[in-house]
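ugh ok fine here u go
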Amino acid sequence: MNSINHVAIIMDGNGRWGLEHFKSRNRGHKEGIKTIEKIIKESIKHNIKFLTLYAFSTENWKRPKKEINYLFSLLEYFLKKKINDFIKENIKLKIIGKKFLFRNIFKIINFCENKTKNNTKLQINLALNYGSKSEIIDAIKLLNKNKIQITEKKISENLYTKNIPDPDILIRTGNTHRLSNFLLWQLSYTEIFFVKKLWPDFNEKDFTKIVNTFRYSKRNYGKI
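structure:
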């Protein structure tokens, strides 16, 4: 049986769900928060130590400003709502990406990270203003600046995800079969599950089914 330390998720389909049900992309983003809360609880049940959620990519800046502003306000609402639960439930929050560009919510982001930095039950990595290509370039620039020889090990040690194990599982909802510049380096040997459901419709049973499928799958890592 395979152990699971880290699950990464591309939470795709919020906007489409909102348009289908309420003719509002923002309503879909709001419903998606409820799914996040469900999957956090389910991750704890399965004793998963790391959960990485792709919340806002470097490409998402191309969206309408009104939608971007709503996403920021929704993120602020989520963090303020959940911070006490994170502290109580021993959950650590870490932001991966260039968070300094989120000026309006930078304070609450830092507050949540600092308040939960010593928690150990589950680490939630929230990918904000995240792009994997930029992450790899930043790691190489840092190595060059410090005159450190470039190796796979040294690149891994200088990514935003340093000290975080590579994902065992990647889940992408929304019936879209691509990685969208997410954890390209870290996903080398990750088992990938593409799900037809849009993110607000994804539930605990769907998550548990994927976890159980992974636990009993054979992983060769290049061997026979």
